[in-house]
Amino acid sequence: MEAKRITKHLSVSPQIAATDLWEVASQGFRSVICNRPDGEGADQPTFEEIEAAAKKAGLEIRYLPVVSGKVSDDDATAFGAALEELPKPVFAYCRTGTRSATLWSLAQAETRPVADILERTKAAGYDMAGVVRRIANGGRTPTETAEDARFDVVIVGAGAGGIAVASSLKARKSDLEIAIIDPADIHYYQPGWTMVGGGVFKAAETAKTMGSLIPSGVHWIKSAVAAFEPKDNAVVLDGCRVVKYGRLVVCPGLKLDWHKVEGLVDTLGKNGVTSNYRYDLAPYTWHLVKTLKTGRALFTQPPMPIKCAGAPQKALYLSGDHWKRSGDLDKINIEFMNAGGVLFGVKDYVPALMDYVKRYDAKLNFFHNLVAIDGPARTATFEVKEPDQKVRRIDVGFDMIHVTPPQVAPDFIRVSPLADAAGWVDVDQATLRHKSHDNIWSLGDVMNAPNAKTAAAARKQAPVVAENLVADIEGRSALAQYDGYGSCPLTVERGKIVLAEFGYGGKLLPSFPCWLIDGTKPSKAAWLLKERLLPPIYWKAMLRGKEWMAKPEKVTVG
């Protein structure tokens, strides 16, 4: 007997023998569903035999036979009804368990997100790709299976990467029929939120309507993606609409997993708990900084990867700078709670950053990962995993805490055929083309190239994807390569920035001569770049296909 758990109420299994029913009962199951018709295999016990053994073991049992490959909508409805009626947990079986998993998937389609269904069945060892359209259609067979729309290029995600690559494609080949899929009404300049939390920008300056930014001639499909069908060159939308593509670009950004920290969602925006990773909370950060005159301020950083790996400490530096200027720094204890073991991943920038750690008298606590928070009690719980030490938990009180949430690929990416084992879109790190599907590319935070996840990285990636995609349309080999460039303007004080620019392997990739901006040292010029130049470059150049300082590097042959 091999019970594969899907939920706490249901496990599925390949064919069992009558003698297995005692073990089924001993494992705590209270009911059994048989989804395999009698006579399907020569070595298969009849339902009558299974039923008799189940009753002896004190189990309730239901016979819902389904012919292999012919799971009907009525079958799924009946399975769902049985799950409601039978004592739980339930043990369901067929020849391999696939029919039982399929029935559950279709029965749950109206109450669970598609990605959750796919994730649970995948974890149990069952691939529901063959019924994903039915799941997206509320568990019912679609009446129309042809595509609802077709485009030369479909782009999933209208963030920095998606709009930039659409504009770069249009600039290269204006006759392309391009669609961007994204349900959001508002587009945010997220790099500005650190400055909002430091009292430099106003939140409204970082937001524009999505419709005002979609490039002219590009179709905007205002919907969420449910699943991918790369073998059919199709994207399935919520509601089971199907969009076909000649080529696909995937760049939906990251999911901020606030729920992974116990108690965090309930206390965000109050009790001194804030985060610059959310538009509506960044102003609260500045409010807390302005009003805190004494006490303990915590700044957290979760395990990598996260977008803008310097953002957690940027919040610390700008806060410390304000408290120093206001004369309150000596009454405030600043602590940086970092799940990792280093201050910054590229060692060349660490000396300058350490100078500011000392300036603000901040305590560095490495290998400290935030796992729970009690807002009313103003207590944060950290799991401490120091090398060669026993894992332990500690509680730390706070008057203010800036939380950087754990971050993962979106659910519909992690469970898709496009993802690697860790859940990221699997690409060649130079060409950004998918390793298994030749007509798919990815950029931005969701792909698995080992680069920093920043808007500056997307600015360099978009022309690479556009250049290589157009080359593929024209029957040519990839022309451009991405060197891993990323930039992190570390706001160490108001008026000065350590401009970290680097590529794969931590190689320094400065954009300016050192006499203008030496990125390893705090610079007023870098602050001017961050405050005055980068926002208009983002809105008026990057998102409009003007590749200022972002022309793609040619592929090296040999």
Task: Spell out the CATH superfamily of the largest domain.
Answer: FAD/NAD(P)-binding domain
Biggest β-sheet description: 7 strands, mixed
**Spatial separation of the terminal alpha carbons:** 55 Å
**Average residue pLDDT:** 94
Give me the Rg, rounded. Answer: 27 Å
The proportion of residues forming helix, as a percent range, comes to: 25-40%
Percent strand: 15-25%
Q: What is the number of helices?
A: 15
Number of domains: 3
Low-confidence spans: none
Helix vs. strand class? alpha/beta
What is the CATH C level class of the largest domain, in words? Alpha Beta
As for the CATH topology of the largest domain, it is FAD/NAD(P)-binding domain
CATH architect. name of the largest domain: 3-Layer(bba) Sandwich
Number of strand segments: 28
Anisotropy-based shape: globular
Domain Beta-lactamase hydrolase-like protein phosphatase-like: 5-110
Protein name: TIGR01244 family phosphatase
Pfam families: BLH_phosphatase, Pyr_redox_2
Domain FAD/NAD(P)-binding: 151-269
